[in-house]
Design brief:
13 helices, 6 strands, mainly alpha, 341 residues, two-stranded parallel sheet, two-stranded antiparallel ribbon
Length: 341
């Protein structure tokens, strides 16, 4: 800001007043005053030197007044959150305009005789009168006019938000790793995923989901089922056979059960179903396990297949190849190499 030469009186400054105590003691007194006036004290802590000093002062006064534990809010300013990036992008899109005056505000206030807290009312009135007396129009649109010596400056704040997408994606990957899930499951963005990476990610996520489901079944579903079964037996709704042990003596055997959850789903149904058939043929898996992973009861599947086979025979239809051996063998075989020309 350009300040013209003037002969007005110099600007007043605050007089120094010595209080007879160190900065440390004065800061403690200020902190004690806050604790005396407010019921809840929260310290904002970022890890820097200033906030660390404030945290230590508040902790010392909290011990003196018996207000422990101290409530603190930690905010790491070096790790910029997506909200700050969005705010910065919004600010960068704003076209800001400022009117620059060559006069110093304090000098103008003294020269025009404005009192304390009046914020230059006379000066503002003169500026408004200048604009009203000298209107300028362009095709019917009024153009703001400035007072003598004023200039119009434009500021477009810039912020390096070009890497916001990569930053947000990396933050989502960190969150997904902490949750034990894949980044694709958190973002629901599968556009950059092929079959191998998608299957590997879902297998890792399935371990976490399977563990949580097992814990839920073990700690909630099975005890709840056992309590219901015990009550039903005690009330005679489920009578025991002759010479059978009472429920309380064989509780684990009576309430033993397995729970079927939601289906895991397929990424490539042809390959994965063929692999399931090969696993059962090699005695590495069972039909019960394969059906349970897809949210099915293997007994219901077998009864349904038997009913469909009987109905096909009654209707004289040819039975389809349901064993899967042909498809499994075809997929498992290596691809044929082209013959040499």
């Amino acid at each position: 800001m350009n300040t013209p030469a003037t002969t007005s009186k110099p600007r007043k400054t605050l007089d120094r007043r010595y209080v007879g105590k160190s900065v440390y003691d004065a800061a403690l007194d200020r902190m004690r005053l806050l604790y005396a006036r407010f019921d809840r004290i929260v310290v904002s802590f970022s890890g820097g030197k200033d906030s660390t000093v404030v945290l230590q002062l508040a902790l010392q006064v909290a011990r003196e007044t018996g207000r422990l534990p101290l409530e603190a809010h930690f905010y790491d300013e070096e790790c910029i959150s997506p909200d700050i990036e969005l705010q910065a992008a919004t600010v960068a899109a704003i076209f800001s305009t400022f009117v620059t005056s060559p006069y110093d505000p304090a000098l103008v206030q003294d020269a025009l005789g404005a009192g304390e807290g009046e914020e230059l009312p006379l000066y503002q009135a003169l500026r408004a009168q200048w604009a009203n007396d000298r209107p300028a129009y362009l095709n019917g649109v009024r153009i703001p006019t400035l007072a003598p010596g004023e200039t119009l400056d434009s500021v477009s704040p810039a912020h390096p938000d070009g890497n916001f997408e990569a930053f947000a994606h990396e933050m989502q990957r960190v969150i997904a790793a902490a949750l034990g899930l894949s980044a694709e499951q958190v973002t629901q963005d599968w556009s950059k995923t092929n079959y191998s990476s998608a299957r590997a990610a879902l297998l890792e996520a399935w371990k976490t989901l399977q563990r949580r489901r097992d814990e839920f079944c073990l700690n909630f579903a099975s005890p709840f089922y056992g309590a219901w079964l015990w009550e039903a037996m005690e009330r005679g709704e489920l009578p025991l056979p002759a010479r059978a042990l009472p429920y309380i003596e064989a509780r684990a055997a009576y309430s033993r059960c397995s729970w079927t959850g939601v289906a895991r789903g397929w990424i490539d149904p042809t390959k994965e179903r063929a692999g399931a058939v090969m696993g059962m043929d090699a005695a590495l898996s069972t039909l019960k396990r394969e059906c349970a992973e897809q949210g099915l009861d293997y007994e219901e599947v077998l009864h349904q297949r038997a009913a469909e086979i009987r109905l096909m025979k009654e209707l004289g239809l040819d039975l389809p190849d349901w064993t899967g051996a042909v498809a499994a063998a075809t997929i498992a075989s290596p691809p044929e190499m082209p013959a040499a020309q």
